[in-house]
Write a structure and sequence with these properties.
This protein is of the alpha/beta class. It is 32% helix and 19% strand. The protein has a six-stranded mixed beta sheet, sandwiched between helices. Strands 13-15-11-17-16 form a five-stranded mixed beta sheet. It has a four-stranded antiparallel beta sheet with strand order 5-4-6-21. α13 links the parallel β16 and β17 (411-420).
Length: 509
């Protein structure tokens, strides 16, 4: 194949370059084909990104669904729109002669909501091309979609550029390359595109009963998320779930003058701080009884976790942190346990608005990442029991009355907001092994195999309901600003993704 395309340290910040292991992984033939046809490929991507795709924008979501249906149909897929109680699904199928197995590819065609004021361009849905990362103030390049060639370190800035439109267009490019090389997959291919993933995929699981015959398969590939920074082909076998909660501690019924009543009226901000401190020890381990129950890592598990080539020292430097929590022996091991994160705090005012009062309430927003061995209902019950053990009378999903606040020394309100369980496919499952083998043979190197990713995907119930193995094949750059302003896609990753997806589709019969 052609010479490998990599991050170029000369065009990167030194800190980012230190995170990247320039692995000598050769280009897959499908990547070479994509590069040879990059003008048309980027033009198709830009056309897709120019359709607004926020889930709440029903008209444009349907327009994008129809656009993608047409793109798959043009490649020879039997493609259709599947109606749901919410946004439509896009379904496409291509059968292989004599195939006995079926591969289902999942991606989502919606993007996160946008605040245009935070974007350094006219609109998040008018893609632009820049020479690099926004942090480096890269120059804009005119002619996006009309150029003959694109450099690897150039980036397209647009909503859903990396999350998750690029992998969908890469599927199409992979099929183009495989047709040109007369090396079509030996498995039947199915594609399902979700139009509500960024809104929690509420219509996806209910649609299974209606469309189960179309969704049956032997293995599902989830095309979402960032590839490992080494740029080595990456397989992720699971994702953590999530349980969110808000805890409000009550103080006086109204804010009181801290000079007149300090030392006499309890401060809810201080009580909240003490409550949160009771939930973790100095090493960062959760102290809620039973929080880690049921989790056992075998020697084989730890060996697999240690094989992930993370550069933790570089990450520590990037984040400017003086120490790390000791929940696990490494970053990968830490992700195998449920976490407890304070994601926001609120109590009266700070800065120029600060005033000398005892606040009436203090609130903490908390997320608890779940793993396969832990269920949201169990963690919720343990969390509630711990708060009560600290002497609190707890009300749920409502305000405490004056009578309840008077009757108890300490009163708290807890609102559990939402729950998504984790999923994990066994890396030793025969289908997992087939996929690993396909990537190893295609690239001549062992893929990075991640047991569990730290983030949460709302399709976990979809995976559970279908009942066959699911593995993520991430491809985009890890510094893509997904879910934030100025989301971007590095084009070197995009071209390489075509080869990775083609390799993943080339499973042996």
């Amino acid at each position: 194949g052609a010479a490998p395309r990599r991050y170029d340290p000369r065009t990167m910040s030194p800190l980012l370059a230190s995170l990247v292991f320039l692995a000598a992984v050769p280009a897959h033939p499908a990547e070479t084909h994509a590069r040879a046809n990059q003008a048309a490929l980027v033009r198709e991507l830009v056309e897709a990104l120019s359709i607004p795709d926020v889930a709440a924008d029903k008209a444009n979501i349907r327009r994008k669904a129809e656009f993608l249906r047409g793109r798959f149909e043009a490649r020879g897929f039997a493609a259709e729109i599947l109606e749901t109680t919410g946004n439509p699904l896009v379904f496409a199928e291509m059968k292989a002669t004599g195939a006995t197995r079926t591969l289902l590819l999942y991606a989502h065609y919606d993007g996160q909501p946008v605040d245009p004021k935070g974007w350094k361009q006219e609109s998040p849905f008018k893609p632009i091309l820049r020479r690099g990362r926004m942090e480096e103030s890269p120059a804009e390049i005119a002619g996006l979609g009309a150029l003959a060639a694109y450099e690897d370190d150039w980036r397209i800035y647009a909503r859903s550029a990396s999350d998750d439109t690029a992998p969908i267009i890469a599927i199409l490019a992979a099929i183009d390359a495989m047709k040109a090389a007369k090396t079509m997959p030996s498995w039947n291919l199915k594609v399902i595109l979700d139009g509500e993933e960024e809104a929690g995929s509420p219509s996806l699981v209910p649609a299974i009963a209606r469309y189960r015959d179309r969704l049956t398969a032997d293995l599902m590939l989830i095309l979402d998320g960032p590839i490992h920074p080494t740029l080595r082909p990456t397989l992720v076998f699971g994702a953590r779930g999530n349980l969110t909660a808000e805890v409000t501690i009550y103080g006086p019924k109204t804010g009181l003058h801290s000079g007149h009543y300090g030392n006499w009226v309890p401060n809810p901000g201080m009580r909240l701080a003490q409550l949160l401190a009771s939930m973790k020890d100095e090493s960062g381990r959760v102290t809620i009884p039973g929080y880690y129950d049921g989790i056992t890592l075998t020697a084989e598990d730890r060996k697999a976790l240690a094989s992930v080539p993370d550069d933790e020292a570089a990450l520590i430097k990037l984040f400017s942190i003086g120490s790390v929590d000791k929940v696990g022996a490494s970053l990968q091991e830490a992700l195998q346990y449920p976490s407890l994160n304070v994601r926001g705090l609120s109590s009266s005012y700070v800065g120029a608005l600060a005033r000398t009062i005892i606040p009436d309430t203090a609130t903490a927003a908390i997320d608890m990442r779940l793993v396969k061995e832990t269920k949201g209902k169990d963690i919720q019950a343990k969390f509630l029991k711990h708060v009560e053990a600290q002497g609190y009378f707890v009300v749920q999903n409502r305000d405490a009355s004056d009578e309840e606040r008077l009757a108890h020394p300490k009163t708290a309100r807890i609102d559990f907001r939402g729950e998504t369980n984790a999923y994990r496919t066994d890396p030793s499952d025969p289908m997992s092994v087939r996929l690993t083998t396909a990537l190893r043979k295609a690239f001549g190197a062992e893929p990075v195999r991640i047991r569990t990713s730290g983030g949460t995907v709302p399709i976990a119930p979809f995976i559970e309901a279908l009942g066959f193995p699911a593995v993520s094949v991430p491809t985009v750059n890890f510094d893509n600003n997904q879910h934030g302003e100025n989301e971007n896609l590095r084009l070197g990753h995009f071209f390489r993704s075509v080869g990775i997806i083609a390799a993943a589709m080339s499973l042996e019969p």
